[in-house]
């Protein structure tokens, strides 16, 4: 008798050979390259890329100038590019019962247009420039080849951790996976400032490892901040911070510093609003605790939040 042994190989996207695919390279001037690097340095979706992937992404990006009033993306269209903002301000409109409502803005930083490319869905919002500006585009094919592939790795790394977080327990599994897709990892050195009290806020943090020290400067009777900061909290693995300013639309109520090396998962304000709505009750209950503590610690209610809105 004669046997043939068939070896069934499972498909693994990580081992996909992509060297044969043609790479897109847009040549850039030194000035363009510098501006591009500056614009991309805080883009969360790029944070987990290795240097080779990052350099392929930068090569493939192209500059697009936009005029005030221009629609960079229209809700309902197919996705062509992902965009990183170089400069300019942009409104985010989402249609509700056929009527477009402005649900947020971008002010000279950030990125948009990842959802249609990640999930093969129509554009979920309209993005309109409210000033002349410029964005860096990344084509769909390169985005999927590098970012979407990298997301598969991120899911394996963070799915269990995200699953274990009590404050995300109101999310469905599919929503938690979407959280993993949009987070970026940031590492802080001992003593490094993560958040500065009084600054405007655009992201939310979850501690992955290490310890974070939260300090607050109280205000005197003339409403001027005193110099000495008081430690008000410490956070470690699995705890979150930086939600208050996003929920209340106020400046940061306190500062945050790394104690030893700290690794945080970071989410931008648009993703926070889009994905964490179901967790808001838990967060607001916690904010009510801050208000009680503030009276206990400082003897006054410093008006940190009006979380009832
Ligand atoms: P996209 O490819 O769907 C539109 O094209 C982009 O707008 C989208 O990717 C996001 O990058 C960006 N809901 C959906 N998309 C949003 C939102 C958003 N904000 C920015 N984008 N919401 C607003 C949250 C402030 C939720 C509205 C209910
Ligand atoms: P944020 O966006 O205002 C600073 O940036 C973060 O520190 C804040 O969000 C909270 O996540 C976190 N009062 C205000 N913010 C606090 C407090 C707090 N504790 C942690 N944060 N209180 C401490 C209660 C133990 C009351 C002040 C005395």
Automatic annotation (TrEMBL):
Give the residue spans that cross the bilayer: none
Listed Pfam families: cNMP_binding
Q: Name residues in a coiled coil.
A: none
Output the superkingdom of the source species.
Eukaryota
Q: Where does 3',5'-cyclic AMP 1 bind?
A: 114, 123
Task: State the family it belongs to.
Answer: Belongs to the cAMP-dependent kinase regulatory chain family.
Q: What is this protein called?
A: Protein kinase cAMP-dependent type II regulatory subunit beta
Species source reads Pelodiscus sinensis (Chinese softshell turtle)
């Amino acid at each position: 008798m004669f046997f043939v042994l068939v070896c069934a190989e499972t498909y693994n996207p990580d081992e996909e050979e992509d060297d044969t695919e043609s790479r897109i390279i847009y040549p850039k001037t030194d000035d363009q390259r510098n501006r591009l690097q500056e614009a991309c340095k805080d883009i969360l979706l790029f944070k987990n890329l290795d240097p080779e992937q990052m350099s392929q992404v930068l090569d493939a990006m192209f500059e697009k100038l936009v005029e005030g009033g221009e629609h960079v993306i229209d809700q309902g269209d197919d996705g062509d590019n992902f965009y990183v903002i170089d400069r300019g301000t942009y409104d985010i409109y989402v249609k509700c019962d056929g009527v477009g409502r402005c649900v947020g803005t971008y002010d000279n930083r950030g990125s948009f247009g990842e959802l249609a490319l990640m999930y093969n869905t129509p554009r979920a919002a309209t993005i309109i420039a409210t000033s002349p500006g410029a964005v860096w585009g990344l084509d769909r094919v390169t985005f999927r080849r590098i970012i979407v592939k990298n997301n598969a790795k991120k899911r394996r790394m963070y799915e269990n951790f995200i699953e274990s977080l009590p404050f995300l327990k109101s999310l469905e599994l599919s929503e938690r996976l979407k959280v993993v897709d949009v987070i970026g990892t940031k590492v802080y050195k001992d003593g490094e400032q993560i958040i500065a009290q009084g600054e405007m806020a655009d992201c939310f943090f979850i501690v992955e490892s290490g310890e974070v020290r939260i300090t607050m400067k109280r205000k005197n009777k003339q409403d001027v901040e005193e110099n000495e900061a008081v430690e008000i909290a410490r956070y470690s693995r699995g705890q979150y911070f930086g939600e208050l300013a996003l929920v209340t639309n106020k400046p940061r109520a306190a500062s945050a510093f790394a104690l030893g090396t700290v690794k945080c998962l970071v989410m931008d304000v648009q993703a926070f609003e889009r994905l964490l709505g179901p967790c808001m009750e838990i967060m607001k209950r916690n904010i009510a605790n801050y208000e009680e503590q503030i009276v206990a610690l400082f003897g006054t209610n410093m008006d940190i939040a009006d979380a009832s809105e």
